[in-house]
Each structure stands twice: as C-alpha cells, then as structure tokens.
Design goal:
Bound molecules: FE2/S2 (inorganic) cluster
Low-confidence stretches: none
Mean pLDDT: 88
CATH topology of the largest domain: Rossmann fold
CATH architecture of the largest domain: 3-Layer(aba) Sandwich
Structural class: alpha/beta
Helix content: 10-25%
Length: 223
C-alpha cells in the first residue's frame, strides 16, 4: 500500500475506520487514525468526528494545516444544527457515520481540489418556493454584502454593493434577472453578474448556490 495519499481520521469510530480502510485500499491510499490534528501539507483527506469540540475550528484552520486536503465530517446521530454548522464552516462533505465512506468515495471521484472556503446559510428552499425576487441579504466579512435572488425557479447570489458608488443593488428594481441600481441606474444580470448598463464599468461578483437537505448555501471560494 502506498502512503503517498494519506487519509487522516480524527476520531476512533470503528465503523468509520473500517469504511475508510476499504476506501483507502481501493484507491492506493493509507489511513492514519490520530487523536490530535497536526499540520501535513500532503494529506489527501481529513475525516473529523463532529462530536469533537474543536470540529468546526478545524475546518477554519484547513488552509494552514492541510492546504490540499478534502475535508469530511461525520455525525454519530442525526443533528441538523451541527450538520448545517459543519457545512457552513467549510467541510466539503458531511455525512452520517454509516454512509461516510460511501459518500466520500463518490465525492472524491469528482473532486478537483480545495475550492470552497466557507458556506453561508442563505434560505430554506421551502420558505422561498412561492417568493420571487430578492429573498435574502447577507453580509460576509470577506466578500461584503450579498443578495440572493429567486428568478425563474432558481436561486442566484450576487454581490449587493454597486461597483459604481456602493449603493445597495437589491434595493433597486428587479425585472426578470436584471437589477437596476437605485442610485444612478446601472444595470446588472444577477445570474452572471454582467454589467448591462453604466455608469458602473465593472460587473458584480456572483457566487454558487448549493442546495443540501432543503437548505440553500452560498459557497465562497478560497482565494
Ligand atoms: S451607485 Fe450604482 S450606479 Fe451609481
């Protein structure tokens, strides 16, 4: 077995470890069960037991500790709040202990490298099913204000500060997917961020919206 690809399991859940061993042997990797986290730039996957008190903190430290790793967490019993908190903290996958290895294998098949820095909980999909237009406004310390729009049955997230002079775009009129800045009339497509009319001369940033378990999260990429 090659130790080039390392799966580090923080926690000693026997069922999870068995599943990880199986996955590792299929992928030419090795499992390292550890009690305490340590920095390791070559780690391929880190699996964290969400029962650990420092589980959310570990996600925030990923860039320093395991810059290239896929970060997965598991729950021993259903806990919706903890599950959402873990996704929000930036785990790439959160699963029950029984399904972790299977879901991890599936996720690794399409994973191309660390991308998501964090997720912001935006809305519950059921709550906005019958509402169109602006359905949420959030403020992300790293990215600034973000508005969530429900257009044509799909949720879109776009920067909410007008690049011209900073007005709150989502307070302007929305026509289909086009928002008009309430201050000087610049227009943007909220699906792509494209600037359609000045005086602004830049687009607005857009963000992926991922729906998991009926909750829409805005995904902020790592810089
Ligand atoms: S602030 Fe939006 S167009 Fe001027």
């Amino acid at each position: 077995m090659s130790a080039e690809r390392r799966i580090v399991a923080l926690g000693n859940d026997a069922l999870v470890l068995r599943g990880l061993e199986r996955l590792a042997s299929e992928r030419g990797a090795a499992v390292l069960a550890a009690d305490a986290p340590r920095e390791d730039a070559d780690t391929w996957v880190v699996v964290v037991d969400l029962a650990r008190a420092d589980a959310l903190e570990l996600a925030a430290q990923r860039r320093d500790r395991w810059p290239g790793a896929f970060l997965a967490a598991f729950l021993g019993s259903p806990d919706r709040a903890r599950w959402e908190a873990a996704l929000g903290a930036g785990y790439d996958l959160v699963a029950s202990r029984g399904s972790l290895a299977r879901e991890l294998g599936r996720a690794l098949d399409t994973w191309t490298g660390p991308r998501i820095a964090r997720r912001l909980r935006a809305v519950t999909v059921d709550d906005v099913a019958g509402r169109l237009g602006v359905v949420a406004r959030l403020d992300d310390p790293g990215s600034g204000p973000i508005a969530v729009y429900h257009v044509g049955g799909t949720l879109y997230a776009a920067g909410d500060a007008c690049p011209h002079a900073g007005a709150t775009l989502s307070e302007g009129a929305l026509d289909g997917a086009v928002v008009t800045c309430p201050l000087h009339g610049s227009q943007f497509d909220v699906r792509s961020g494209e600037r359609l009319r000045g005086p602004a001369d830049l687009p607005v940033p857009t963000y992926r919206v991922a729906v998991e378990g009926g909750v829409a999260f805005i995904e902020i990429d790592a810089p």
